[in-house]
What does this fold into?
Amino acid sequence: MDPFTRKNHRIWMVSFYLFLMAIFLHLQPSAAFGREGRIRPFGTGDKEATIFPVWAFVFVISVVAYCMTVYFAQFKFT
It folds into this structure.
């Protein structure tokens, strides 16, 4: 990578995050969204509730975006 992209890790991380979130929102998995496209509530008591809420997907996607940035920037932790 050239020096500009190596110095701007936040730009890459935000870009990866927005790209992954756009894919997630376009696919609208049934585990997180109901039949009408609404966000399903978190819980186990209701038939429409889910144990995989949208906020959990958002957290996982943000961790994946960070890991992709670390991998592509070839950070050295030691």
Summary: The two ends are 20 Å apart (CA to CA). The mean pLDDT is 86.
